[in-house]
Design goal:
By secondary structure, the protein is α+β, with helices and mostly antiparallel strands. About 25% of the residues lie in helices and about 20% in strands. The chain has a seven-stranded mixed beta sheet with strand order 10-11-12-2-13-20-14. Strands 1, 15, 16, 17, 18 and 19 form a six-stranded mixed beta sheet that branches. Strands 5-6-9 form a three-stranded antiparallel beta sheet, with no helix packed on it. The radius of gyration is 23 Å and the shape is globular. The two termini are about 25 Å apart.
């Protein structure tokens, strides 16, 4: 169950990503009555009014297999917290392997995961949180989950541990050294610890306080678990170099080849079983799980292109799918009738075009050219042609931190954006190119391919913007998100993808602030950085509201990028698979996969 505050965005190539949200999502995500329509004796059924994980009672794992797909992207790594591996696709697998103290329910609210343990705020000045790990909590290899694991989670997010000017650990989140200066306080071999915040943290409940197995990292670093914890807490970067090198890359491997079993224990309800390159990863129920066991023995995560998913569902090759929402896909699913359950609702996932600010890029130091491109992007046409047939209420999205279906959207947009890019202005764009003395500038739009909807988006942008004088090139690539791929290399002028989120308050800092791990285009604005600092260090909702408007305006004034639309949520499951439930958050339908079970 992923609940890390780590970043706001899980990058999504075909369907999802990480998102920036300033408040919990609104309605439209309550469990549907049909979620329990196929139950047999009721043993595994969920309560339709329950927005969190249902109480399944004293269950036994069923010897069966259920399959799921969110896209064709290959599994990257057991370590899902590096910038290269933190994506919706990889997280569909890793979120089943690692337990957290909290999770997001179908309503976008935070729920405690008492399987792992409990937490409570014991002081507000300074803000101090006490964590108590379940005495029975163990890794699947039998090793106790302890405070040492929390120390490692803090250490990998602490840039004070460095090799020269470079952080020692290549984590997607790098702020805990500043927000929790002392780290977890408690016996590393024990089950209780506290953390004291330098300043209040509004998203403290979803901080990643336990993730990777400290005993594995310690062994690979040539030290004991106690020595690893001591080195992290004392700031001994030299002693940690070998351990950090393993954490950064030691779990990466070639497609189809899992790391050795002793390197990949699980703290969650499933563990890694097998990996067939280009086809699937099979998870098997963790027989040593200390909480409610998985309802089904095998969960198969299949790598399927969005345009193949409906047929695979109809054939019974995949049981639960999250294809990219398109008009054709919805029509195909509807045509399957009672054999499937279609899941629709609001989604905290949004499409955007991001400019590349790296040195030498066409748009890096030229706001006027960014304006010209924004003038010719046919956002309304994209929404009308591709999104409204799925959601008649869909609108062009004019914010990044709030969504059109949220109550504060109109207030934020009204304060931040004057509507200057609502309508295509070919002549205005032409005039800017002429003034700038630029002829037929090439704009490579990169995205994760194959992706029919994004291909259509690029085609519409090309048709419009080439009238203004740009030369638009579709550089969609299957390795767009892969380590060393297009996004990481910066081989694009504009990146087209989505962020998928979970109602977090502060996570956008990881995308828009200078030098942050998910700031892929290398954007930098000191005013934006200062606004995020003010927002992330207070519990005051009034400050959150004010700074959200401020940030949105600054990002529009700079043209960090161009928001396009909020994704309509669309998924489907075989009618005989119980407990599949829609959620607006980044986790998607797979958020409660440990509760899926086939009806008798």
């Amino acid at each position: 169950m992923r609940v890390q505050r780590i970043s706001k965005a899980v990058a999504v190539g075909a369907a999802l990503a990480l998102a920036l949200t300033a408040c919990a999502p609104g309605g439209g995500n309550a469990p549907t009555e049909s979620a329990t329509s196929a139950k047999t004796d009721g043993k595994f059924s969920v309560e339709p009014t329950n927005s969190g994980l249902a109480d399944l009672g004293d269950i036994q794992t069923k010897d069966d297999s259920v399959s799921y797909s969110v896209g064709a992207e290959e599994f990257i790594s057991y370590n899902g917290l590096t910038p290269e591996s933190y994506s919706t696709y990889n997280s569909a697998i890793t979120d089943r392997l690692f337990a957290s103290f909290t999770y997001f329910g179908t309503d976008g609210k935070i729920y405690p995961n008492e399987d792992l343990g409990k937490y409570e705020v014991v002081s507000e000045d300074p803000m101090t949180v006490k964590y108590t790990i379940n005495p029975e909590a163990k890794w699947s290899d039998g090793t106790d989950i302890t405070v040492a694991d929390a120390v490692l989670a803090w250490g990998v997010q602490n840039t004070n541990l460095a090799d020269g000017k470079k952080p020692l650990f290549n984590s997607v989140s790098q702020d805990l050294g500043q927000t929790i200066p002392k780290g977890p306080e408690g016996d590393p071999a024990g089950k209780e610890f506290t953390v004291t915040y330098a300043k209040p943290d509004p998203d403290f409940a979803i901080q990643t306080m336990i993730y990777s197995p400290a005993h594995v990292v310690a062994k690979q670093g040539g030290m004991s678990t106690a020595e690893l914890a001591e080195a992290i807490l004392s700031g001994d970067s030299a002693a940690l170099k070998k351990a950090a090198a393993f954490w950064n890359t030691g779990w990466n491997t070639s497609p189809g080849k899992l790391p050795a079993a002793d390197l990949i224990p699980s703290s969650g309800p499933y563990k890694l079983g097998s990996w067939e390159a280009g086809q699937s990863v099979t998870l098997v129920a963790n027989e040593n799980y200390y909480g409610t066991p998985a309802a089904t023995k095998e969960l198969v995560i299949r790598f399927a292109a969005p345009d193949t998913m409906v047929q695979a569902l109809q054939n019974g090759d995949i049981d639960v799918i999250e294809p990219q929402p398109t008009v054709d896909t919805l029509a195909q699913l509807t045509a399957l009738g009672d054999s499937v359950q279609v899941h629709q609702g609001d989604s905290l996932t949004w499409e955007h075009l991001d400019f590349n600010f790296r040195k030498g890029s066409l748009f890096a130091d030229n706001l006027e050219l960014r304006k010209a491109f924004a003038m010719c992007v046919p956002r309304q046409q994209i929404v009308d042609n591709l999104i409204k047939p799925l959601n008649p209420e869909a609108t062009v999205m004019n914010a990044r931190e709030v969504f059109p279906f949220q109550d504060n959207y109109a207030d934020v947009v009204g304060a931040a954006y004057a509507g200057q890019y609502d309508n295509v202005d070919i002549e205005g764009a032409k005039a800017i190119l002429a003034t700038e003395g630029v002829t037929a500038p090439e704009v490579r739009i990169g995205y994760s391919a194959p992706n029919p909807r994004r291909t259509e988006e690029v085609a519409m942008i090309k048709s419009s913007c080439e009238q203004a004088g740009f030369k638009v090139v579709d550089v969609g690539d299957a390795k767009f998100f892969a380590p060393g791929g297009t996004l990481e290399r910066g081989d694009y002028e504009v990146a087209l993808f989505a962020w998928a989120g979970s109602g977090q308050i502060t996570s956008g800092e990881n995308i828009y602030a200078s030098g942050k791990p998910q700031n892929y285009g290398k954007y930098s604005n000191k005013e934006v950085d200062a606004a995020w600092e003010r927002l992330t260090t207070t519990l005051d909702p009034a400050v959150h509201a004010t700074e959200t408007k401020n940030i949105e305006k600054l990002l529009w004034d700079d043209l960090y990028g161009i928001p396009v639309f909020a994704h309509p949520g669309l998924g489907a499951s075989a009618a005989d698979v119980l407990n599949v439930r829609d959620t607006a958050t980044q986790n998607g339908l797979v958020w409660n996969a440990e509760q899926w079970v086939r009806a008798e």
